[in-house]
Amino acid sequence: MEALTVDLAASPVRQLNQALHAPDPAPRWRVLNPRGAHSVACGLTRHLTVDIEGHVGYYCAGMNQLATVTVHGNAGVGVAENMMSGMVRVRGNASQSAGATAHGGLLVIEGDAAARCGISMKGADIVVGGSIGHMSAFMAQAGRLVVCGDAGDALGDSVYEARIYVKGTVKSLGADCVEKPVRDEHLTELAELLKLAERDEDPAAFRRYGSARRLYHFTVDNAY
Length: 224
Prior knowledge:
The protein is mainly β. 9% of the residues lie in helices and 23% in strands. It has helices at residues 13-20, 184-196, and strands at 4-7, 28-32, 49-53, 68-71, 87-90, 106-109, 122-128, 142-147, 163-166, 177-180, 207-211. An eleven-stranded mixed β-sheet has the order 1-2-3-4-5-6-7-8-9-11-10, covered by helices on one side. It is elongated. The relative contact order is 0.09. The mean pLDDT is 96.
């Protein structure tokens, strides 16, 4: 079925989002001329396919459920924040807090991601083709963050049970984040994630990081 085309040079974002939330929307959409608009394709709750031809601003595809959203350009702050399911792919780079607080689904960033990628993620999977900025996976509670490039300062600071895989170098680890052994089950899940993200990296080239669990319990040394 041919996609329904919406030109944001002629229609406001609000009108697009209202159409995507209509009771019986078309299954395929193509969005032209986003020109950095904020909140494009937010809160989708159906099995829709949305292709955005250009750069988007803040919170694109936020709160996504079930839909597949592809940004054929760069994304601003908070792409796919609080995503519950579905898939969001950014063909270019992503700004800060990509996938923040996301509970499920898959976020693929083919380029680089800025600071705090995956901050407080709660079960989503994030695959970054390039490198990530500082404080990524800060307080990440569940889910998996895969980085095919390098990681900046304080990776995984105060991380809970999220698993972090990095192929390149890590500038520094955050509080309570440590390197962990890569076992067969980790290679298997990493291979599955890379395949879903359409990456061809060798899983054996990655190192795994996670919580040392030293912050889980009260110690008198932390008391005031």
